[in-house]
Amino acid sequence: MPQINTNNVFWREKDGVVTVLVIATGEYFEFNRVGSAVWKGIAEGLAADAIIDRLAQTYDTTREQLAIDVHALIVKMIARELIEE
């Protein structure tokens, strides 16, 4: 289950949008609403499948497409060291 790399990032949410600051580099990321929902799910300790289930209740798309998109985002977050497995 992925978790936020608290040694590497600081984050906040405002109006449903999550902004993440990489402490070492000063680089920051601002996620759209879906990305923010994924991030918040990770922060809550949810597994990817639970995040996908939650998104499926909100967005009008297939669970399969959500799974593809969520897993791709998680891979990118890991590559940027925003989260860790």
Summarize this structure as a short list of keywords or feature phrases.
5 strands, three-stranded antiparallel β-sheet, 85 residues, 46% helix, single chain, two-stranded antiparallel sheet, alpha+beta
Would you write up a description of this structure?
With 85 residues, the protein is an alpha+beta fold. The protein has a three-stranded antiparallel β-sheet, covered by helices on one side. A two-stranded antiparallel ribbon has the order 1-5. The mean pLDDT is 95. Strand 3 (17-22) and strand 4 (28-30) form a beta hairpin. It is globular, with a radius of gyration of 12 Å. Helix 1 (33-43) packs across helix 2 and helix 2 crosses helix 3. The chain contains three helices and five strands. The relative contact order is 0.21. The N and C termini lie close together (6 Å). The protein has helices spanning 33-43, 48-58, 63-79, and strands at residues 3-4, 9-14, 17-22, 28-30, 83-84.
Q: How large is the count of helical segments?
A: 3
In terms of structural class, how would the helical and strand content be classed?
Answer: alpha+beta
- Largest sheet geometry: 3 strands, antiparallel
**What is the end-to-end distance?**
6 Å
Tell me the Rg in angstroms: 12 Å
Using the alpha-carbon principal axes, give the shape: globular
Low-confidence stretches: none
H/E series:
EEEEHHHE
**Overall mean confidence score, pLDDT:** 95
**% residues in beta strands:** 15-25%
The count of DSSP E runs of length 2 or more, i.e. the number of strands, is 5
Q: Reading side by side through the largest sheet, how are the strands ordered? A: 2-3-4
Q: What fraction, in percent, of the residue positions are helical?
A: 40-55%
